[in-house]
Amino acid sequence: MPPSDTELNFQRDIYSVSRLNSEVRAVLEGSFPLLWVEGEISNLARPASGHIYFTLKDPQAQVRCAMFRMKRQRLRFQPENGLKVLIRARVGLYEGRGEFQLVAEHMELAGEGDLQQAFDALKLKLQQEGLFDSSHKLPLPLLPKRIGLITSPSGAAIRDVLSVLQRRLPAVPILIYPTQVQGEEAPRSLVNALRLAEQRQDCDLLILTRGGGSLEDLMAFNDEAVARVIHDLTIPLISAVGHEVDFTIADFVADRRAPTPSVAAELATPDREEVLDRINSLQRRIRLATIRHLTDSRRSLENLTKRLERGHPGNRLQQQLQYLDDLSLRLARGIRSQLDRRLATIGLLESRLQGVIPTHQIRRQREQFDGLSHRLILAAAANLRIKRQSLESAIGKLDTLSPLATLHRGYSITRVLPSHELLQQASQVQPGDELETRVMDGTLISVVSRIDSN
To answer: For residue range 212-271, what is the model confidence (pLDDT) as tens digits?
Structure first.
């Protein structure tokens, strides 16, 4: 006896969609390690959650990717559509839509891997040579007489440094050594500026700085020649290249490293406000004690006033008015929404009606007829052009084969008169016969006077 439908259903292991997606996700995540994947960003989305979602593609395929907020905050650049990047990601599945995706743990611009290897190799080499040793680092002056800035005169870093120096110690003069901070010529420009500052000895403190950027943008400060010039300086130097997370070879060789240009300016100068704060410290303590007593009294008075205000009938009336305003706004939005739906329906009906009006069909048929007529004219013209070319070719061939063409090459045609028989052999004529000889530009009449055979 065959099993019933109930027994068959009991024997089957029936998956729900949620269970299926969950188990597929577990298989994917357990089957692949962390992968490095390279491609171009497209369809980038940045919701309010702080996560980013994008598609990673190459010329043949694409895959959906996600990067959550905590990982995105560690990026040193802003992802944009069209950027070619290298990501380290986990293979997974978004269960909500059953979509295969990569969950990115790290992202860098394509090509930075080679730059990082070169950076690490140079860092190890210089470290083994002792260029990073603290024994070679010079102390910073407590009160510099003149500060030299080695940076780009058009960058944001110089504005930050000058702003902090002007606020903290405006009496110290500043000398700017302009240089390139990015590009192929930047290392040589930095070397020249550093050597010029060392040669002139106009400053007793130098600040080498630029704003943040990618590893490629900061490569001028990872140049071996720049590092060796910094190491040989007799003037103390503060390196402030990039943001807090950026480290360059120049930072390790310099006498002091600052996480930002503004912090470099703070390290270079004492704060006059600190001195004033020490002088006024006792006065502030007395003033604060008085203020604290007045504040406590005022806070007590304010609490009593608030309790009185909360019990006032006007507050209840104000809440009811606010509730009435809220209901009015909701009613207006509902009416507007319903009106929009009706207008959309009317627009749809009008578009359908426009599609069945005979005038539109006639116009479309006329446009089709005009198109076919134009195509027919073009086809006839093309056919006529082909026939003309064929005729011209045949005329050329006929002219080539024509006996008259031989006349232009120095030959002639002779006929026997009066029969006009073409003369091919000497035996066709007798002395006294008349001959007609045609050459290129005319006809000659002659009489045979003698026949010489070969």
So the answer is: 776 777 888 989 999 999 999 999 999 988 777 778 889 999 999 998 999 988 888 886
Q: What is the CATH number of the domain that holds 213?
A: 3.40.50.261
Identify any residues that bridge with 209 across adjacent strands, giving them in sequence order.
240
Q: Are both 76 and 129 inside the same structural domain?
A: no
pTM: 0.43
Closest to 97 in 3D by CA, of 20, 161, 27, 44: 20
Last residue of a domain, one of 211, 239, 270: 270
- Shared domain for 122 and 101, answered yes or no, is no
261/248 Cα distance (integer angstroms): 14
Identify whether residues 105 and 137 lie together within a single domain: no
Q: What are the tokens at 50?
A: 């702080």
pLDDT in tens, 121-148: 888 888 898 988 988 899 999 889 999 9
The two three-digit tokens of residue 85, written as one number: 């990047």
